[in-house]
User: Fold this.
Amino acid sequence: MGNTWGQLFRVTTWGESHGAAIGAVVDGCPPRLPLSEADIQPDLDRRVPGQSALTTQRKETDTVKILSGVFDGLTLGTPISLEMPNLDMRPGDYQEVREKYRPSHADYTYEAKYGVRDWRGGGRTSARETAGRVAAGAIARKLLAERFGVLVVAWVSKVGTLGVDCDAEKVTRQQVDATPIRCPDLATAERMIAAVEAVRKDGDSLGGIVTCAVRGCPPGWGEPVFDRLEADLAKAVMSLPASKGFEIGSGFAGTDLRGSQHNDEFYMEGGRVRTRTNRSGGVQGGITNGETIVFRVAFKPTATIMREQNTVSVAHEDTTIKGRGRHDPCVLPRAVPMVEAMATLVLADHALRQQVNEPDHRRS
Amino acid sequence: MGNTWGQLFRVTTWGESHGAAIGAVVDGCPPRLPLSEADIQPDLDRRVPGQSALTTQRKETDTVKILSGVFDGLTLGTPISLEMPNLDMRPGDYQEVREKYRPSHADYTYEAKYGVRDWRGGGRTSARETAGRVAAGAIARKLLAERFGVLVVAWVSKVGTLGVDCDAEKVTRQQVDATPIRCPDLATAERMIAAVEAVRKDGDSLGGIVTCAVRGCPPGWGEPVFDRLEADLAKAVMSLPASKGFEIGSGFAGTDLRGSQHNDEFYMEGGRVRTRTNRSGGVQGGITNGETIVFRVAFKPTATIMREQNTVSVAHEDTTIKGRGRHDPCVLPRAVPMVEAMATLVLADHALRQQVNEPDHRRS
Amino acid sequence: MGNTWGQLFRVTTWGESHGAAIGAVVDGCPPRLPLSEADIQPDLDRRVPGQSALTTQRKETDTVKILSGVFDGLTLGTPISLEMPNLDMRPGDYQEVREKYRPSHADYTYEAKYGVRDWRGGGRTSARETAGRVAAGAIARKLLAERFGVLVVAWVSKVGTLGVDCDAEKVTRQQVDATPIRCPDLATAERMIAAVEAVRKDGDSLGGIVTCAVRGCPPGWGEPVFDRLEADLAKAVMSLPASKGFEIGSGFAGTDLRGSQHNDEFYMEGGRVRTRTNRSGGVQGGITNGETIVFRVAFKPTATIMREQNTVSVAHEDTTIKGRGRHDPCVLPRAVPMVEAMATLVLADHALRQQVNEPDHRRS
Amino acid sequence: MGNTWGQLFRVTTWGESHGAAIGAVVDGCPPRLPLSEADIQPDLDRRVPGQSALTTQRKETDTVKILSGVFDGLTLGTPISLEMPNLDMRPGDYQEVREKYRPSHADYTYEAKYGVRDWRGGGRTSARETAGRVAAGAIARKLLAERFGVLVVAWVSKVGTLGVDCDAEKVTRQQVDATPIRCPDLATAERMIAAVEAVRKDGDSLGGIVTCAVRGCPPGWGEPVFDRLEADLAKAVMSLPASKGFEIGSGFAGTDLRGSQHNDEFYMEGGRVRTRTNRSGGVQGGITNGETIVFRVAFKPTATIMREQNTVSVAHEDTTIKGRGRHDPCVLPRAVPMVEAMATLVLADHALRQQVNEPDHRRS
Assistant:
């Protein structure tokens, strides 16, 4: 259970790292949206391993096929089945994982939960699972752009101890993809790249922060009480591998302020209700206010390192393990499309939910 | 929509701040759990306004009645309906809110969403709504304690700029409730109280952080992919009014570390798989590992302040507003039972979900 | 679990027959629908016991209160909490039920399921539970009528062996309510009433059939595959106490026909696609075609009879039991508003679901 | 939407009749169930077209592949992705369907709903979609048999006007499959086969009834109120193509009886609570009582016939159409595995749901 996201724009992902394939089924995409594999592949290419020296050298092309739900170039309103074969499978790399639990991985907890585990490359716990999310997110992205004029862009804002602030109103995907580290500030990007290369040589790893902005969202998206937009965004990104924290708007730093410093005052601008500041992060009481949504996600340093660590065996004896195989010294660049995918899934779902609630005066 | 929490332990809350009553319906509580109002009222008493000079002076007793689902002192397995009347309603206090949107409140966004709004005390957006959650959470708390041996305790770890670390393995509810600010470190508590009183006199407000520990949780709770335990915890607390951030285990600070510093090494202790450190926060790959779950929630400073602020009217004209009525200069002490309630709802739900997945060898 | 109906127009009911109250929470009703208790009470009055000599003499007024979700006469888009106190509780009538399982009731199965049971009047298994459904259905009825022009009307078409066909395009509520048996054919109604009175004197009971028509439904409501409109209608009415069968359009009798006799040929009428016959019952492939939806529901004879029957005790010994207390010799007249309620809940849900799927050309 | 079945044993199907493939994702199958394609293929082979002269001559092998969720022959507790390629696609057969709505098919309603339609072989509305259900049902069947000792068997009990009663306690799959018509009464089977061959030559079609028995079900499965077991069974089979009616136990015929004739008296047998008769059909108050569950499903005559019929074009002009291509003169034999599949999906779901509710005394 727990492999489905969304109420109205619903995504179910499936697949283990070294099984035959991975994929996703999207149910609830509205009909008559133009769609082909070419709309999806670019997002997958940003997530795929082996893009640069900064990421794992596993060779996967993640070539997506649409198996249903699209006819003559248009969505049908029926489920869209997406599939990507697994190509570069070397289970031999993982024989040690069969016998020992990797520290800060999910080997032990899956076995505790299920009493059985696919030890090849982490099985279902592998970040490879996120390819299905990214493929589904690309459809959500197109729906948001074409039907609602909403744009989602994320970038790396911190790697290890190197952080930088960028203007959430202006960052473009082109700027983000200008360097393999996906930080739009080029000077910081260079230093981040150097830091990642240093830890890689050292057999170690780094974590960091991804910032995400959602621009063009109309007021009124999100639901009160449990399904607040920020609550769904938090769940969405905290469901990504290696994420340890979420904050929106002023976030943790905002706790230092007084109410008089923190409140976002309203004013009228061109007939539109605006706020002078955006410490709310585009959401008030769980519902969008028309300002840019800005949130940040913390990712821990990659758990797999090329160093010997203490651990226990499946037979419950103390032992040691040393990472091998092909892994990322820093997950951040590949986390960017994952965060964008989850944000688009949340927003597409709430866009559709608001179709139901929308008062008549807004429709006409 | 969005007023229901949970898959198997399901809670639906209802009620506006100044309507006839507020309440909750709990569906999915297992049968034969001893239950009466006396199990629920203490948690509500911790959330109720007017507890101390630190909180709003609205006088509500939040006296709960169980209207269904319990017979002869035992739960029946049928829905448990919980209800609390609204007593201290002074809609006259809110006439200005009828005409103007309060900064950093949800007045504007609700109107944008629904085209209609109950302006009395914030209506459904009021923190009063959380009484239903706390009542339901008290049932979850009892289920967790009696059937699973799980204990949830939260406390205030930061108010404004005053923070303190406490031992998540040891903090008790008695320590938390020793002072009205609900920080178990007494020296810090005194300084926090002084800080809150200072801003109250100043007509201003403070935010802060609540830390929550879940002790005694067995390994294996939580679901892979979208319903990871930390994802559900994040959603749960980010659905609380005024929350702006969530982190688990090492959280945002963990992004400064290298993998070799961050990983939690496994070792055997008394036949049990343990970790030497707990930067994972008790959860790996979305599933509990048997260590204490520790997470933190950031709350912004209370939006209502007794100062004049710029805003706009419902007629979309620039204007000003000044808080009046009865409000909290600092929501943190009352946020403690809210965070506990949401944590217990998440854990009770996953406890039941694991009944289904549990491998036979664990049962026998 | 299982106490919630609907995806977008969601109803959760609660309450035992002899608890403090019964009620329902409606989540997802669109905002700005005019609503007051006066819209709901008439439907409840049709379901209430003691309406005539044909039904149980338990005296309940089922006076409904709206506790939330409505402000200044309009729905807010927030949950609508509905409550009806239980007045005429005589648990003394049920002492024997505490010790013995009533044949063809749910006493035994509830105890088998939960290991505990509220034996007072059947507890949650009582048909009294349907009051919450009828109250919620009245809101759905208003939404359907005012926003979509859809009308739902049901009537008794068979009691015992006495059946009659009425014109599904024309039956009115006024005709239905003209007699206490709720059969719009007056000659048949008289014979049915005589039959019910005869079995009542005999301490026995009768079953029958309710037919329901939905008029004015546009084409396009319903979802493919699992949530076909007829599937949801079937589930809805098969969830009512005492129902044993469902059929739509030609139903079971249609299996006698050949395809050439059964098919509904299309033709154009006034620019509208119509069918010459309606053996489909208004639904094709799970989706409405714009013709009147017609379905029939079989109800078994009331299980409680004033005769001695063999049964077993809770101690698992053979024994006998004889009905006492206040019960319906024929549930059919009171089943009419129940069937209407369930039909309106299904249709309101699908009306909202189609808001999401509706192609743009339909909107403009 | 509407392509997912179940709460805990969840199945999502996807695929159009003439797309690349069809399939299903099963989420919630418990871990460590032995499973391979060989467990699934036999059920698919019973549904596949071209089995005999009685069914459509479309040539599909429906060869299933398991793409995820199984490792070393055991289920992992993760989603099981099932896929079957579409082989025999002749869209040329359907050019007329592109321009005209087939009577009593879903061509018109899909276009009314979505504003777009895959006209090749009915697209998503094709009975081909049920292959995904049957594949998923085979997994549910294995779970029910191995973990719970529950057996599901269905058969054809009526074709056109030819009906027969069989003993629901005894019919075996071997008896059912002894003839291509799948009626275990051989004499009746022969007459049914002759009737089908007659209408086929005549370019016409027949409907009929499938009866289904569930044996070995323990008491206590099913949920009160909306998710009664019979309600879920009704929805499940009414979601199948061409089904027009559902009845359980005494069904529609039971409305002729008096309560004194209809009630199922309890008695003790070998320490077990039993009923002397089974007019309840194995379910009381929505919950199983340990007796065999028996229900019947009405299927209309196949809509596609080789005769000219009146209809309208997509341009909304009156016209005529005549069936061509490859179709079933009688869907009943292939409906048998479909009904079994839906019954197993319902029962597997409720089996898992009862794990959560089950009182402790039952577990120990």
Observations:
- The domain at 4-363 of chain C is CATH 3.60.150.10 (Chorismate synthase, AroC fold).
- The mean pLDDT of chain C is 94.
- The first helix of chain C runs from residue 37 to 47.
